[in-house]
Amino acid sequence: MAKEITGVAGAEIKLAVVKAPGGHKIELLEYLVPLAGKRHVNLLPCDVGHVHVALIVDDLEDVLERIAKFGWKAAGEPQTIKSGPNAGKRVVYVRDPDGTTIEFMQPPVKPVDSC
Questions:
Q1: 86: left (phi over 0), alpha (psi -120 to 50) or beta
Q2: DSSP the chain
Q3: What residue ranges do the domains of the chain occupy?
């Protein structure tokens, strides 16, 4: 059945599903077979074929520390966006050992009102 969905003959896939609020989900796939021809491609975000997802996190530094233990590396330093619809958010792209890119975004910390 995997071949009919993916177009990859003989595909065997390990699947994990991450559920998010609002009924959204992200499917993470690992192809176990075929292994022949499997290669690491180092696409840059500006290259045709590059895709990424952005995830909102509460504590960007904590996430970076935790994922580093599994070989994930930040593409650069976290930056605070200065303008536009994401102004105030701290963001960074990270890459897993296979080259998959995920963007993590931390919303600005809201000041606590004092009465």
A1: alpha
A2: -HHHHH--TT-EEEEEEEE-GGG-EEEEEEEEE--TT-------TTSTT--EEEEE-S-HHHHHHHHHTTT-EESS--EE--SSTTTT-EEEEEE-TT--EEEEEEPPPPPPP--
A3: 1-38, 40-115
- Which one, of 94, 14, 12, lies nearest residue 53 by Cα? 94
Segment 70-89, tens digit of pLDDT: 999 999 999 999 999 989 99
Q: What are phi and psi of 32, to 5 degrees?
A: -85, -35
pTM of the model: 0.72
What's the CA gap between 7 and 11, in Å, rounded?
Answer: 8
Looking at 3.90.1720.10, 3.40.640.10, 3.10.180.10, 1.20.1070.10, the CATH number of the domain 40-115 comes to 3.10.180.10
CA distance linking residue 12 with residue 34, whole number of Å: 7
